[in-house]
Amino acid sequence: MEATMEEVIETPSIFAGSEISEMENLFRELGKDSLNQEFCQELAATFSSSTCRVGKPAISWEQVQGWFQDKQKDLQASADNCVSRPDSSVVLKGKTSADFSELAFEAKSARDNAWYDVGTFLNYRFLSTGELEARVRFAGFGNSHDEWVNVREGVRERSIPLEASECHKVKERPDYAVYTDAHVLEIQRRLHDIKGCRCIFVVRFDEDKTVEKLPLNKICCRP
Length: 223
Fold this sequence. Notes:
By secondary structure, the chain is α+β, with helices and mostly antiparallel strands. The chain is built from 4 helices and 11 strands.
């Protein structure tokens, strides 16, 4: 009896170890900005003219960009597996329900402990504790407001604005605040009119325990 064995061939990397190390550092620093064509062209030219490339084929900018694209995909997959999606609950947002884009996530800013829609996930990193952090650019803000956010504790599905016909979904739950930014203490039900819901919701903010009366367009529901 004869047995056959399939031969496994590993394709060596086109990049030298020092080049990979440099790209790793650049990716951690720049995130998605490392995919810029002009940046990749400059980096490819630098690699191709280095002494470690003597006798080896030159590196093209497409190869450099492809490496960064693969790195981005790998880290995005890791982040998707780590994003926490808590149970449904009522959540308060610091803006009205108008003009919400179809963004999938929101993140908690360390500047004011408020939740903002995520425009882009720029980069990811693992801490020595094993925790995953994402560098986010908040929708409507520039790069000066980019932040590193703990994915498990500070990233979640985007909150959903309520329509006037959905005000009945808001419930009084004074003893439940596990995944909320504010919880409802009292609901002053009122008849709806042509402008929509006229109900008033008395809420207590988790951050400073202050109590306010708010209309429906200031409240979002957790998905």
